[in-house]
Amino acid sequence: MTASRLPQIxxxxxIGATLSAGSVPAASAAPAxxxxxxxxxxxxxxxxxxxxxTQFVPEGCVQSSRDYPKQVAAALNVxxxxxxxxxxxxxxxxVGSQSPLVGPPNPPQFDRLTPTTDLVTVGIGGNDIDxxxxxxRCGSPTAFGSPCKDRWTINGVDKISVNIANAQxxxxxxxxxxxxxxxxxxxxxxxxxxxxxxxxxxYPMVPIADGDALWLADKLIxxxxxxxxxxxxxxxxxxxxxxxxxxxDACQPPGVRWVEGLIPFSADPPGLAVPLHPNQLGxxxxxxxxxxxxxx
Length: 296
Known about the structure:
Blueprint: E1 9-11, H1 12-15, H2 17-20, E2 35-40, H3 42-45, H4 68-76, E3 80-83, E4 119-123, H5 131-136, H6 147-151, E5 153-154, E6 157-158, H7 159-181, E7 186-190, H8 210-234, E8 237-240, E9 265-267, E10 270-272, H9 280-294
Parallel strand pairs: 1-8, 2-3, 2-4, 4-7, 7-8
Antiparallel strand pairs: 5-6, 9-10
Helix pairs in contact: 4-9, 7-8
Pfam families: Lipase_GDSL_2
Active site: 42 (nucleophile), 277
Organism: Antrihabitans stalactiti
């Protein structure tokens, strides 16, 4: 399959339990790809406070030693692999250095691309629209109302929705930039898992007001729809991690949830966690979703 193939949405619901449970497939004997580069933000770095690695990026990127790109690279037995993913990354960090909160900068992520790169995953966009920063400030002393939504709605206009619409050109530019630098590459745009599920709130387990939980779920759907549109516009594949992750949101108990809540602790693996980010179960599911797309 070439990078010019019309995009397809790889829905985990459609292929059943193969993606929703079980381990990542073992490495193939003969590599189908020779040079894999992973680009993206904290949802691709699977940001962690217990499994940080500096193999590919500075410590401030809080990149996990078991993020989905590393699992994909291992399963595909790729000879050359570079993981540029970094927490808080935006599309501008593809072409410019990013300065994490601590430590040295992460070089432009596009610097890892070469003309011989033949597989690229991209997971970006959440920080461009300010959704994560909004969600992290949505903690509420009560379950009633929608204070976070109200704060982001000015004169009846939802600022996050405006940001989502404006971000499509940035995503398209990113995908075009990958294709320009690595014309042989198969490009997969990976969307965002369902950290919040429509109609599901669990105050005070996740201390976000019920109205804001609904609002965040709606914004996530809007974001993923924009990513699908961008993928279609450029002609790359979209890997849908959202559909198969429904029911594994932050409101679910340990062992079931794939995204942690506002309380910075995880059972998978045990220890401090990055709020509202994938735990190891979520990273494993992302890896299975990408591998299902690659092997299709």
